[in-house]
Hints:
Layout: E1 3-7, H1 16-30, E2 35-40, H2 61-72, E3 76-79, H3 80-85, H4 91-96, E4 108-111, H5 113-122, E5 125-129
Parallel strand pairs: 1-2, 1-5, 2-3, 3-4
Helix pairs in contact: 1-2
Amino acid sequence: MQHTLLVTGSPYQSKACHSALCFARAALKAQPDSIKGVFFYEDAVLIGNDLAQPPRDEINLKQAWQTLASEFNLPLYLCIAAAVRRGVINESESKRYELNHHSLSHGFQLEGLGTLVELMNSTQKIIQFR
């Protein structure tokens, strides 16, 4: 059975990103193709901000997601509208808005809600973390 993970809680004000990470690790270790993709929406898109740096004595959630995604070839999608609104932009969006920099972390990609719908329609279950 394949799952889609939908994460909506802020990485800084909720346990949503951490709980989703723990679930994803366990699921992928048990069955490497059990998760088709992770879609971050609302404040959860802040996980993909390359400029955010956690204190050294805290878990680096962004880095943990990047490592997991790399290890299992897991797509990490950020809702483009929510991300741009919160200042998380890739190089092409930076040019579009005539900015000199971008802030999207490696391993994350900006996608529209159509990608979420596609994930939902192609997996057996969607699990939301808020």
